[in-house]
Structures are given as structure tokens and as C-alpha cells.
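job 3f2a | input accepted
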Amino acid sequence: MTKYLVISSFLNFVAALLVTFAVVLRGRKNQLARRFGFFCLSLGIWSAAYFLWQISEDAERALFLSRLLMDAAYLIPVTYLHFVVDLCGEKRPWWIRIGYGTALVFVAANSTPFMITGVKPTYDLPFWPRAGPGFALYLGFFAVYTVEAARLLHRQARASSGARATQLWHIFFATLIGFTGGATNFPLWYNISVPPVGNALVFIYLVTVANAVARYQLPLATYDFVLAALYMGISATVSVFYLLAYVVASSLQGVMLTSTDLLNGFLLGMVVSLFFFWIVPRLKESTERILEQTYLRKRIGRRSRLKGLAVQICTIAAEQEIFDTTVREIAGAM
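job 3f2a | predicted structure (334 res):
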């Protein structure tokens, strides 16, 4: 069972990371993309912590990672409902406010035995969390917000037609599959002998939703998935070289590395590579844009005026008026 959870959580993490990158590449100004990206980011953090928890070798580390994954899990129901509300064109302001507020309360209480009392051997798993008295409140929160998201998707899918209806039906059934699979993780928290066999369904959910939104251009596109995969592939390749250097340096110092050390080194290399290949260029662009808007405001206005000249010319029929407009706009900008 442990191997199954390790593999499934890693696949969930990779899929969530890929979708998150694809959403961000699509455009931060797209509100629907931001909502979906925030949900995928929460799911990605949950999956990454889940994976590291399953390969933990001591109870203290397993407890820390269990609490870390739950910090992300508390946000998953409300971020998903927020995405579905925007996707369906609905308005649920109080649902969203109460949801985020409740999630933050759970996060604040997460480091106490109120939510997680500890980890103990359960089934054939060495370190499984045990629910505290407040964990039942989260289960109710999870159920209510998931059911509301599914209800909105079902209602909107029935009222739609064509490609829009197909997309919504795909997301609706993927929601049923993915959240049901994720919920199989909860019985063991109460020492109920139901193994988390549905953990891999989260991966199927992500693949299904990604296909639906890519196929119908909302809010992703196939190009964005390819570009995101390329970023991850480059980062993974660089991480391998970093890992080889790490192994050689450790060997020269007489240090024997365990499989956990190698995995941690690879993940660290991935994070550093993604930072330099993806985050740094965007920080550079943002910094340059801020400087331009601050110190080169007049020049930007002139440049925008020249760009608008082409639009004006296309709307003019008389040749002399085209000439006069061109001279006037260029003179004004220069």
C-alpha cells in the first residue's frame, strides 16, 4: 500500500504542478485562470507533502508533513468552489468569504492536537495521522463545499449546449471521481479499516479536467501544457546534473547518501531550477514594467499613440486624410 501511495501522490503532484504552470502561462489577468490555478496550487502542495510523508522514516517528520499537507487540504474545497462559481457565472460571495475564513481557522488550529493528535501505525502503513476532535468539522466543510460545487456544475451543464455542455459534464464527472478518491484517505484517520485506494483518482481527475479545459480553450490551451512541460523537463534535466555533482562531492568526503537524501537533492534541484528558469525572468519583466511606468511614462504614451495609428488608418478611406492623420500623429508623438 505504501508503494501505491508513493507513486499515486507523486503523479498527483506532477499533474497539479503541470496544470498550475499552464494556468499561469495562460495569463494572470484571466480571473478564471487565477481561480483554477490557485486550486491546482493547493492540490499540488497537498500532493507534494503527501509524497514526502509517505517516504518519511520517523514519526516526527511524518507528523510535520501530515500537518503541512492538511494546511493545503483546508483550502482545496473553497478554492475549487471559487473556480466553479466563476466557471458557471454564478455569484456566491458569502460562500466564498465564509469558506476562506473557515479554512484559515483550520490552518491556525492545525499545529495543535485539536486537528491532528499524532501518527500511529494503521493498516500496513507505519505513520498515519489520527484525527483530533476538530477534524470532523473539516470533514463537514469538505462535504458541503464539494457538494455545492458539484451541484452548480450539474445545473449549469444541463442548461448548456454544445461544446460548453460537454466541457461542464466532463468537469462534473471528474469532480465526482477525484473528490471521492481523495475522500478515501479519511477513514483511516478514525482507525476505520478502509484503505486509501482512491488516491490515484485525483490524478485521473486532473488529467480529465485539464483535457476538458484545453480542448475547449477555457482557461488553458494545448500550447500552454507543452510549454509548462518543457519548463519542467528542462528543470528536471538540470536537477539530474546537480544531483550527480552532489553525489560526487559526497563521495569525495566519504559520505554515503541514502535514497531519501538523493530524492531531497533532486527536489531541491527542481525548485532552484524552476526559480531561475521561470520566476527570475518574470521578476525581471515586472521590474522593468514598473520602472517604465514610473520613469518613462511619457515615452510609453507616445509609443501607444504610434501603435494606435495603424488602427486609425484602417478606418479611413480617403488617401489625403490618411496622409494628414499619419503626419499629425507622428509629429505629435515625436
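job 3f2a | The chain has a mean pLDDT of 76.
job 3f2a | closed
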